[in-house]
Fold:
Amino acid sequence: MSHKNLLLISFLVGLFLTACHSNSSTTHTKEHQTAENKRLEKDEYDEQLERYKQEFEDTKDPALGYVPIERLWNAINYTNTLKANINTMYEGVVWQERGPAYDSVDGGNKRGNTGNEAYTAGRINSVLIDAADATGNTVFCGSVTGGIWKCTNFLSTKPNWQPVNDFLSNMSVSSICQNPANLNIMYMATGEPWNNQGALNGSGVFKSIDHGITWTQLVSTTSYTKSFEILCDAAGNVYYATTNGLLRSTDGGATWITITPTGTNANCTDIEISSTGRLHAAFGFFGTTVYHRYTNNPATVTTSSWTTSIGIRKSATASMRMVLASKGNTLYALTCNSSREVDSCYKSTDGGATWTLKNTSGYTDNVTNGQGWVNLTLFINPDNDNEILMGGLDAFKSTDGGATINRISNWVSVSPYVHADHHYMKWWKIGANRKLLIAGDGGIFYSTDDGNTFKDKNENLRIKQFYSCAIHPTLTNYFLAGAQDNGSHQFKNIGLSYSKEVTGGDGCYCHIDQINPQFQFTSYVYNEYFRSTNGGASFNSVSLNYTGGSFVNANDYDSYNKKFFANNGSGSILKWENPTTGDSSIELTFTAMSGKTPTAFTVSPYSQVGAGKTKLFIGTTGGGLFVLNNADTVTATSANAKLVSIGSTSFPNGTIRCVAVGTNENNLAVVFSNYGVSNVWVTNNGGTSWTAIDGNLPDMPVRWALFHPTLNTKLILGTETGVFVTGSVNG
Structure:
């Protein structure tokens, strides 16, 4: 099978390594790095805002200008209907999960300095410790794009995580809660609220009445796509914090009313129900004034009957987000300034009526490192009102009521290791023993000594978000895969096993030379690459002259003539002249591609070894499709002459994500990742004419395409809801 078919298959495999969609950060501080880790300077976790923007552009409906996320839920339901019908299931493909079930570090970001024994998983926004299990062993977690997972032996050395419901795999789980009045009832809020261009939206609230076994979407909430938190009070009433206000349901989610206090902001960023029954809420986000309000009557409060606290309101120019923590009448609040960093810690000892600024001298440590809009969490020691834990990039503890803080975890180099970017914390007791849990972009970490040491709880939690993978031409079980915020991983084993993180930071596109597999490549964001010349035994960073492109940057490798091609920005591509030996690169700019960003590269599998024998297909934003002839020898001055447009004026004004080549270069397929367009197009005459063949596909992004190796009538698609196949491309 050709190099390109292997690479195309690798993307379909990548979709099934975990339930993949994506996301993530501003550059992380390199504090506490040891000298031996200086070479990891570029292995930074991770740029969430840039990733969100890119995904938004790739998937938005061009006619609407936004992502109609409700269509994803429709597509999931439609796909499930097809899967339930044996006549619509293709029986010729058997899928096997490759995990990883756990991982280790072998050249990627270091995980502490005590042997790098920690495992990582994928991104988690919320955790639920099952109140029906007094031992603390039953735990649910909601991953960003991996569905809901459950563990029944959480306190054991090897947790037995299993997916509870993977039909929600492309939904972003933001918050999970349990009804104290009936522990069999649970609610899950979906959709990340972090940015107005975030594509990881949700479809409202889902409810389980059988202890989390099955989940049903609450139709009353389908219009709410961005969720901060969901909670139940002692009577089972539900409170739902969204970017469109604070909602309440007193009938189990059948109906909702808005209870956002008059005079505040619609963005309800945090809610807390104290043990006293008082409901606290924080309002304001991303450059709006932030407020705290409370009520003693949450079940009946109206928009005009909240109580205004004293001492905590901050103007839009001074703050952009607030999070809360409560323990009886003691509360804490953290606010972030316009630089997205924690600037203030407030404390109240009278149930939130009045607040005092505790860190009057500020903090010398950057808690969130400029990511307070997304990474910020807070909790109080259940036995000590003066001790709090706050998380952002790393975890910090205060033992003097928030006046000063000390770092207690490190994402790189120094123990105790906890993966960067924290979204959830819980400090709770089992009997007389305190337990501490932190969840974030690398999974779940657990401490039994108040954060002096941590152990991961990530084995079997298979929720890494893989962007791509590359398959070895001769070693059956060897491949490389790039994971969101969790590095690039090397797989070598049969079946569901472990992987090694060989390069750190965000892992993106990977390549293995299909003729000389000793040459292997992984990529970080933009045009940052790592190279192995010894079959993957070790990788080294390569610094090229051009560092443009996109966050997850499209590229392809020419195994025939040893060239590398990548997006370098609007109208231009990077050509790496000697990827197997050096770092010489040039920029090729194209007049015909002006205003269009390259988003898909495919080296023709019918290219040959020899000067001028490489043909490169390039897909772009704005529905542009081009072929670059003699790509291996093209220069900056000859680029325009070698580029030919082979697209169609009928193509949508969207993003081409993949160009597939059939048994010859006349048979091509291109797919678009946008909603609201014809997503799949084919030609059998090299691009002279094109036909849209969406057929019975639902309206959803299509990410990849692959022709059958010997049949141009059979096409396989990697889509937002799974893999589809047709045997009648021309039918």
